[in-house]
Every structure is written in C-alpha cells, then in structure tokens.
Specification:
Length: 197
C-alpha cells in the first residue's frame, strides 16, 4: 500500500469514529442562559396571570371584609340611613359591597298624619323593636341591600336612641310606652308638665 492510500484510510477511520457534520449544517449549540431566562419569564407571566385571576374572583364574589367594615364599633349601636328616609338602629355584624346585616334592630315609628297636622309644635316618636308590633313578625335581623344605604354611623351610649334601647332591654313592657319627643326640630325628653296635659 502506498503512503497516500494509508492517509485516506486513516482519515476514513477517524471520520467514522468522529463524523463531521455535513457542510450545510452546523452542530447545534444550546444557549442555557437564554433558555433559563425564557423559562423564568414564562413562570412570571403564568404566575401573574393566576394571581390576577384569583384576585378578580375574590373581588367579584363580594364576600370580603372591606376597609369600611373596620370602622364598625362592635361595642356600640349603629344607625343605618336608607334611601327611603327610614332609619334603623342596631348592631352591624357584616358590611360589604352587596349588603349590610343588622341585628338587635330598632326603628322609630312616626305619628300618623292626622296627629301631625293637629299638633305641629310637639311631635312624639316611638322607638320600636323589630318583630314586636309588625303583623308579619320578622326575626330580629335585617339584610339590607347596600344600594339602599345612604350612610351609617356609630351611636354614642349617651344619645337618646341608645338610652331608649337600654330602657327597652331592662323592661320591654314599659319601654313600649316610652317615646322620644321633638319640639320644632330639636330632640328632647318629655317633661312632666307636658305629660299631665
């Protein structure tokens, strides 16, 4: 064998052990840094989408405590003012963007129109316990549609309404007869001389 044929055989054997890529194709080089960055970006996008979806569902459900609920003083009574000019007094136990739940409910019964027209200077308003005088005998709990609530406020224990509520709790029968009197727009207790008239 000639020397030229040995070189060709040697190169053929080395080519069979280490094949050369075809002339048009290069060996693929994997850029691991770019792959890691793409994977991390994918994880961040998918994670953000899941968090946004969960937050949207939570907000849409409306069953969460909002910041306003933190202002409810659980040791006090609250007054809830409605769009129909009715006011209910009681304890707010739940407050969210869909409804207000009020327990231990009281309301003010206004005098009839005939009494109001004959006696314009002195008007008696009676504080009533929900469920004591109504024909349909409701439970002592109200679920009020939030769209019907103008505003609500915590009541001081020193106010007339809370005083009358405490009187009712001490003696429900006697409290049914008590009333809150207003004289030309100001609220005041009924004095003994007006009771005798």
């Amino acid at each position: 064998m000639s020397r030229g044929s040995r070189d060709t055989t040697a190169s053929q054997q080395s080519a069979s052990v280490h094949p050369q890529p075809p002339a048009g194709k290069q060996k693929k080089h994997i850029d691991w840094v770019a792959q890691a960055v793409r994977f991390e970006l994918f994880i961040v996008i998918v994670g953000s989408a899941l968090i946004l979806a969960a937050l949207s569902l939570w907000l849409a459900s409306g069953n969460y405590k909002n910041a306003e609920a933190g202002y409810v003083n659980e040791s006090q009574y609250q007054a809830v003012f409605l769009t129909n000019n009715q006011v209910y007094f009681g304890k707010i136990i739940d407050l969210n963007n869909k409804f207000v739940i009020l327990t231990d409910v009281f309301y003010i019964e206004t005098p009839s129109q005939t009494q109001a027209s004959t006696n314009t200077s002195n008007t008696n308003y009676t504080l009533r316990k929900l469920g004591t005088t109504e024909l349909h005998a409701p439970e002592d709990k109200m679920v009020i549609n939030r769209d019907q609530v103008l505003f609500w406020e915590n009541l001081k224990d020193s106010g007339q309404v809370v005083s009358k509520i405490k009187e009712y709790k001490a003696n429900p029968a006697a409290a049914e007869q008590s009333s809150i009197q207003t004289q030309q727009g100001t609220t005041g207790q009924q004095d003994s001389t007006k009771k005798s008239q």
